Every structure is written in structure tokens, then in C-alpha cells.
Amino acid sequence: MSALSRLPTRLGWELELMAPAGATRLDLAQALAERLEATVHRIWLPQSEPSLVPNQPVFENLTLGFELRDAQGQWLLRCVDDLTLQGDLNRKAVPLAGWYRIVSDDLRLLHLIARHCDAEAPLERVLDPVAALFGSEVTGGPGGMRRIADPNDLPIAIGAPLPGERHRPCEVVSAPMLASDSKELLSLVCVEAQRLGFTVPEESATHLHLDASLVEDARVLANLVALWQRWGEAVKAAVQTNPRCVRLGPFEAAVLEVVRAPDFVGLSWAQAQERLKKARPSKYRDINLRNAVFPFLGKPTVELRVLPTSLDAESAWRGLEAMGVVVEMARAGRNPESETELKAALGY
């Protein structure tokens, strides 16, 4: 039995791909929907990106994604944007008709917009419901932009055509499911992506999501952090982490200080959570603990982010299995004595 099958939980994965020039992530969504007898629904995906505007470190975005749902209305896959995928794109390309994004300087406003605005609506009308909430109107701008502000002309959000081939990045996100079903779905995605000419982006990665319950134990979490501190770089070398992948890194000093405290392993999970919240772990690390520490985020998982992307399903699954081994070792309190032992356990 494989490591992922042995873990008492469902799993999900994220596979970062790039549509060929002239195609979009919708093309892959539609092809997969046909194979899965699913329906495609346009959805919002919140994302953040660095800003060059003084005193405004980031812009918050709602970008267009596509969700595949089965006959019971349950989601199976999502094909969404990933703003870290940049190197393969022509940034001077004009927007593709019908593709746009919504930008704001306040994530709270974007949550409001996502709840009240229909992702299926065209740019010309999509912001109307929120303008009505504020008692204001949508105004036009250069290049087809649409802007809403409150009655005091304080900005709320801007809708703008999507520039620079941003319709091409395609992060395929799977719903949580049993390992055997997940492997079968991964194989289908790889086959269809290759058939349509999708490729591996310059900055790509593959992520594994496991249910947070696997590490909701102070001793297990301390084991995972200690294991990664000792062997993280060796694991990355074994699985051949993409050196161009961005938003990776070791655990923050504040997290290490918390889990290395002499009394940490004796804490209840609720007590451990409270200490870890004060350390404010970032999502953008080799192992993302944030979704386990802050369960109100609505995605209670532990995310292992260091795998490269492969369109060969067996290679991709082998990497996911290796990450399952890492979590399995942490749960068992096992820390390899040598790199040879580590690689043998990982299957490399």
C-alpha cells in the first residue's frame, strides 16, 4: 500500500500548467468536463500581487477560473489563474475578448464583490450589484475599464480587461478525494493537457494538500518541522524542486521558536494553535501550515509545495507519494539517520 493510501485522509493536488499560445485554461476545463461528464462553471479566484504604487504593497485581484461539477453538483476540478506564472507570457499582448479581472486595495471589498457579483457576467455589467449596494454608479475608463467608488468618491474596485496573456496560465486544482481516485484523475488531466498542447511553465510547481487533521497534534507538528529543518533541502534535491519556482522557503524564525519551546509537545492542539497564530506562518513556504493554524480560512489543510510539475502522470504521482512519506514519518516520529535512508524512504 502506498504512503498516500496509508494516510487516513483524503488528498488534493495543484498542478501548474500553461496553455499554448491562442488557447486558454477554459479549453482544458471544457475538454476535461467532456471526459468526466461534468459541467463547467465560471468562478472567482482571489489572488494577491505586488504593487508598484507607493504605500500600497499589494493589489488584491479577483480573476476568472472554471470549476467542473459532477451530476450531483459537487466540484471535481478547478482550472484557475496563478499570478506567479509569468515567464512564458507575452506581457504586451492585448486582452482577449471577454477576459477581465477585478482589482481593489482592500480584500474585504473583494469578498463582498465575489458574493454579490456574477462571474458569468460581462465586464460592462459585472460590478452593477455592488455599485447599487453603495448607492453609486459604475463609470467607464480608458481601455474599457469599469470603476466603482462610494458617494464620497472613495475607490472601491476597478474591473479591467485582462492583459498580457493572463488567460493562458492554468493551475489545475483537484477536489479532496481518496488516493486511488486522485491518481486516476491526475492521469486524465495529464493526458488531456498533453493532447491540447499545454506545457510546464517556467516557474511551475505541484502542491499536495492533506487534511489538517494529520498534523493537529503538537508532537506531530513539531516532528514535521524538525524533519524539514534537517532534511528539507535533501528532499528538494531528491524530487528536483524547480529552482525558478517562487514563493518557497524554510519555516520562519518565529515558527521555529514556538515549536522548539520545551513545553510545546505537551500542549493540546488548541493551545498549540494559539501560540502558532502569534507566529503568523506564511503560506509561501516549502510547507504551508497557515491553513491548519487558521482554520477560519476555510481550507483546513497542510500543503507541501516543493514538487516540480510533470505532465507524465507516473512521475507526478511519484512526487506526491514522496510528500506523503514526509508526513507519514512526522506522524510516526521517525527522522532518518542518513540521506541514503531518506531517499530510500522517499522512493528516489
Figure out the total of helices: 12
In this structure, how is the largest beta sheet organized?
12 strands, antiparallel
Q: From the helix content, strand content and strand pairing, which structural class follows? A: alpha+beta
SSE order, one letter for each helix or strand? HEHEEEEHHHEEEEHEHHHEHEHH
Low-confidence stretches: none
Strand content: 15-25%
Kindly state the percentage of residues in helix.
25-40%
Q: Mean pLDDT, rounded to whole units? A: 94
Number of strands: 12
Cα radius of gyration in angstroms: 21 Å
The geometry reads as globular
Distance between the termini: 17 Å
Number of domains: 2
Structure write-up:
With 348 residues, the protein is an alpha+beta fold. It has 2 domains: 143 residues, no CATH class; 142 residues, no CATH class. Helices cover 36% and strands 22% of the residues. It is built from 12 helices and 12 strands. Helix 2 crosses helix 6, helix 6 packs antiparallel against helix 11 and helix 7 packs antiparallel against helix 11. It is globular. The model has no long low-confidence stretch (mean pLDDT 94).
Which helices and strands appear, and what pairs or packs with what?
Layout: H1 3-6, E1 11-18, H2 25-36, E2 39-50, E3 58-69, E4 75-80, E5 100-104, H3 107-116, H4 123-126, H5 128-134, E6 138-140, E7 146-149, E8 155-161, E9 169-174, H6 179-195, E10 206-211, H7 218-239, H8 253-259, H9 269-279, E11 287-288, H10 290-293, E12 301-307, H11 313-332, H12 339-346
Antiparallel strand pairs: 1-9, 1-10, 2-3, 3-4, 3-5, 4-9, 5-8, 6-7, 7-8, 10-12, 11-12
Helix pairs in contact: 2-6, 6-11, 7-11, 7-12, 8-9
